[in-house]
Specification:
Elements lengths: L2 H11 L2 H31 L8 E5 L8 E5 L8 E4 L10
């Protein structure tokens, strides 16, 4: 089958609506994936016992920003990493 015959066959089959349909489906799936990734990050923070991600286990609720935070490397771990705010970083210039 020559290239001209293939082009003629594709024109006869009218592929444009099908291609447009699948492009729309891919766009919908990409939006759902982005939403899923945001939700996954939120759920990891809310339920650390179901993931192996590090999480903030305590912080100084008095100040904004907090003066310290404690980070647990994984749920059930005996280790806790203590971070203290020594100075506030600000962006210079503009």
């Amino acid at each position: 089958m020559s290239d001209k015959d293939k082009v003629k066959l594709m024109e006869d089959l009218n592929w444009k609506p099908a291609v447009q349909y699948w492009r729309e489906q891919v766009e919908k799936l990409e939006k759902k994936l982005a939403l899923y990734e945001k939700l996954e990050k939120k759920l990891v923070g809310m339920y650390p016992e179901h993931s192996d991600q590090p999480f903030i286990c305590s912080y100084d609720a008095k100040g904004s920003p907090p003066e310290y935070i404690n980070v647990c490397p994984a749920y059930g771990s005996d280790a806790v990493y203590h971070y203290t705010l020594k100075r506030l970083y600000t962006q210079q210039g503009g």
